Amino acid sequence: MDSGDAQRKKIKELLKNLHLDSSLLLDKTENHLELVNEFNIDFFTQIKNEYPQLSDSEVIICYYLFVGFKSKEIAVFLNSSTRAVEGKRYRIAKKMDLQKSDFTLVEYLNTSFKSLKKVES
Q1: Which of 30, 22, 92, 83 has the alpha carbon at shortest distance from 63?
Q2: Which of 23, 89, 100, 104 is least crowded, fewest Cβ atoms below 10 Å from its Cβ?
Q3: Contacts with 80 (C-beta within 8 Å, 6 or more apart), sequence order
Q4: Cα dihedral across residues 99, 49, 61, 83: positive or negative
Q5: Closest CA to 55 of 98, 85, 95, 111
Q6: CB–CB of 91/58 below 8 Å?
Q7: Is 73 domain-assigned?
Q8: What mean pLDDT value characterizes the chain?
Q9: Which domain covers residue 53, as residue numbers?
Q10: What is the predicted pLDDT for the residue at 2?
Q11: In a domain, 121, yes or no
């Protein structure tokens, strides 16, 4: 086996372990929103006030996008498919009425909630 094949195998194993670990973590909690809520409660409060029509899972996806995760990474955290996350992103943008604007969902979240970004030292 050449080094390229070995690297791909290691990456697949890492993703598999990450997927298993994240689903075990989520299974131990009553509500995923409560788990994530500890990280930035101000974001969750503000987005729920501005967009009460968003479900808890949609708010979680918004938070993950806000902090910089890609759809593929979010799918692993939520034990879902990338396609399902992309579908939710589309529905979130629709609920936020972003189809008619020049903003993408990520740009909108980063612009609208930038005062809530935690500064890392």
Answers
A1: 92
A2: 100
A3: 74
A4: negative
A5: 95
A6: yes
A7: yes
A8: 76
A9: 3-116
A10: 55
A11: no
Instruction: Please give the span between the terminal C-alpha atoms of the chain, in angstroms, as a whole number.
Output: 43
Render pLDDT for 22-39 as a digit per residue (tens, 0 to 9). 544 444 444 555 555 455
3-state secondary structure the chain: CCHHHHHHHHHHHHHHHHHHHHHHHHHCCCCHHHHHHCCCHHHHHHHHHHCCCCCHHHHHHHHHHHHCCCHHHHHHHCCCCHHHHHHHHHHHHHHCCCCCCCCCHHHHHHHHCHHHCCCCC
CB-CB neighbours of 42 under 10 Å = 11
- Phi and psi angles of residue 120, each rounded to the nearest 5 degrees, phi first: -90, 135
Give per-residue burial for 94-120: e unless 16+ CB within 10 Å, then b: eebebeeeeeebbebbbeebeebeeee
CB atoms within 10 A of CB 41: 11
User: What is the distance between the alpha carbons of residues 23 and 27, in angstroms, rounded to a whole number?
Assistant: 6
